[in-house]
Amino acid sequence: MNAYRRRHFLQAGLAAGLAPLVPASSAAQAPARKFRVSLAQWSLHKAIQSRLITNLDFPRIAREQFGIEGLEFVNALWEAPTHGYVQRLKDNMRKTGTQAVLIMCDNEGFLGSPDKAARLQAADNHRQWVDIAAELGCHSIRTNMYPGQRQPSTPAEIDAFLGHCAESFARLCEYARARQVHVIIENHGGISSNPDVVARLMKSANLANLGTLPDFGNFPKETDRYEAVRKMMPFAKGVSFKCYDFTPDARETTIDMDRMMKIVFDAGYKDWVGIEYEGQRMTEFEGIQAARRCLERYL
After folding, report:
1. What angle (nearest 5°) sits at the alpha carbon of residue 242, between those of residues 137 and 205?
2. Phi then psi for 142, rounded to 5 degrees?
3. pLDDT at residue 223 above 50?
4. pLDDT tens by residue, 16-51
5. How many beta carbons lie within 10 A of that of residue 270, not counting itself?
6. What structural domains does the chain harbor?
């Protein structure tokens, strides 16, 4: 990419008032907080897919532009997951004082496929990301609880689907456990956005390194998102602070964040909370900055 274009892009973000909210030098003096803040890389997917920035720039941008330490990577936004590439990314994290939290893994097959060979192959396809997550120091990889082309709907179909998931997730979790990595499931569309089904898998599988990543936004319109998150929180090993739009004083207009964060706190959760901006009105940089200001209220 043209170096001038990249520099202009980042300077435009600073000109819009997007300076870091928490200088890195002041982190040591900060009071104890209720959780740690991370940034979902998907919040910058337009800039990355437009090649204005790259995955290797993510640590620096998270730290310098937003004062955020934790990094939630998305495998689809990587250029080449080779050993040398991972080492360059680790070096960039070291230089910026950032920390890898998790890798969101897509397009690696259907872990709930009715075809046994396909679902076990999907479990094995995730192994490279488990290895990379361990190398980077991530606590988890985020997976998708997908059946394939057809969504189960009847009780019998759902029972069968859960049996398929139990087999493939057990296989993946066994591999990940040896590398001290969690496998977490996000409500990410289809049956994975049914909190009762996800909770059933958590209870039946009963695997120490299997958990959930409740996303505040990824539920059908007819679903009570607050009750859905409440059902997922007992198994949470991450939280996605999904945002769409804001008032001038950085209050989210789509989700009652006071109510949502109370659910998070009531569950006793004290780990990473990841900002994920997915709005349309603001630029990605503006949206992340507004989400950062919104989340600051609960620290």
Report:
1. 60
2. -95, 130
3. yes
4. 444 444 444 444 455 677 899 999 999 999 999 999
5. 12
6. 105-237 (3.20.20.150)
